[in-house]
TrEMBL record:
The keyword Coiled coil is annotated on this UniProt entry: yes
Coiled-coil ranges (or none): 38-79
Species whose genome carries this gene: Euplotes crassus
Full protein name: Uncharacterized protein
UniProt entry keywords in alphabetical sequence: Coiled coil
Amino acid sequence: SISGTKKFGASTGFVDGGMGSTHFNQTHTSVVGSQQTTANLKGKLSALQEMINQLNEELNFHKKEVSILKSEKETLESVLTVKTQDVRKTLTNELFRVEEGMK
């Protein structure tokens, strides 16, 4: 081929050295690169959204667990308070009987 002549390629545009071919290839590369960047960004955004959704589900699960644990804690505190009062009452009654027995 002679420098400066242009041959039109089937799939890529100008072939073999004309000044127009350089501009076309740069533009084509820029468009393809831009499309790939857009696809990459969309993919990354999609992956981030999926991660956010998973973290949100996990956070909600842990919130429920904390709520259940708080409820169990309150129930146990209530039961222990009742048992403590019962033991105190039993010991007070036993002390009274022992004191009455010593008289």
